[in-house]
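Project standup — Tuesday

K.O.: blocked on the structure for the chain from last sprint. Re-posting the sequence here as requested.
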Amino acid sequence: MIWETIVILIYSTALLLIFLYALAQLNLLFNYLSAKKKHADAPQWDFSKDDEIPTVTIQLPVYNEMYVMERLLENIASIKYPKDKLEIQVLDDSTDETVETTHAQIKQLQATGLDIKHIRRENRAGFKAGALKEGLKTAKGEFIAIFDADFLPKEDWLFKTIPYFKNPKIGVVQTRWGHLNRDYSILTRVQAFALDAHFTLEQVGRNSKGHFINFNGTAGIWRKSCILDAGNWEGDTLTEDLDLSYRAQLKNWKFLFLENVETPAELPVVISAARSQQFRWNKGGAENFQKMSWRVLRSKDISLKTKLHGMLHLLNSTMFLNILIVALLSIPMLYIKNEYEHLKTYFFVMSFFVISTLIFFICFWFTYKRIYGGGFIQFIKYIGMFFVFFSIAMGFSVHNSIAVLEGHFGKKSDFVRTPKFNISSIKQSWRKNQYLRKGLPANIIIEGILMLYFGFGLYSAFIVGNQGGDFGLFPFHLMLFFGFGFVFFNSLISKV
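H.V.: unblocked you, prediction finished:
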């Protein structure tokens, strides 16, 4: 009974942590629904007056972006802003042939009168954070807009964002990401689904009540003095954007999230690219929890509720570890439940997972409705999308849990860029992309074994106990079987 007790305690603890996180998401939903979606009452500069238009530097941190570099520069060059008050820095750490082609294109743009510079470093020290910091040394702008290579801001983007900096307390204005290739595949639709939830429910829900939010690494603008006051960019975590965001807000700078300003971008179309992006985000989140949590807790300038949301925000990626624990122990729990009759009352604790899932279902419906609209037909489509999303998210739990554990235990790793493709149709092939990592991921065998393990969980539902089976966890095991199967087979197919 000792081992059974240990399993029950670990399982229950993980379930409780997931439930607490779900309650925090529910609170963010209430915040989101009560928030003013428009910021019409915020002070803004009048751009009809030339003296109110500030100087802006656009930074483009790039590294080996063969497939999107030309598109990026053409797009940025089309942004409308007074030329005498706009500077563009191409922070190019590339090591391939794009160095020459990028330099040639920049020369052509310079000939049109555009103030654009090609900035190169001797090494990639600090990776993206190091490049941004290097560019900041010579940046002319009072405000620094940042775009990754796969982002395509609309031509009036600066006019929709810069005016809000009239409020001297605003340190960052962040915009919502759009998705150029949302409908390319199931993988891209699932990624878009998750990001839409972040950029509506979470960013608006936190920002509307003055809780910590994060600059998302791109599609936003910093006040230069805010960057410097917060201690400048640091490359000691894989999510330098989250790190600087917290340091700035602990210095009492305010962040403004503009839900209604969309900045289109490309989603990874192949699972290996999604893996590398997920790994970096999740490991970086854990690294920032280790770096920033104590600073948040001991701050005297923020409320208890903001501290609580901040801690859960920093622990966001750690939820994958809790989900993996619950998943792995759910099959032993199924057998324990049916072996020990006197414990059956206790197993109402399993309802925590059902309630948590219901909360996520409700919260994500509002974010889905924000993009696709409401109505019965859309709700039916949403049910299917939620099942697929939840399944695949759990299928990534081994990969993401390894990232989280490395982050918490301080194992350092390089900043692995996400390969870009510049494709939006299934008819276009990504297989010749020269930046894709070769070989199968090391943990694919574990994911294949877990697919079989949860297949056994489905079978177990029919044979446990003496009352004709127990199907309480059957839907959960079905999603796990589908999720790990999706990740496993897509990882194999992408290498064929």
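K.O.: great, moving the ticket to review. The chain has a mean pLDDT of 91. The CA atoms of residues 29 and 242 lie 22 Å apart.
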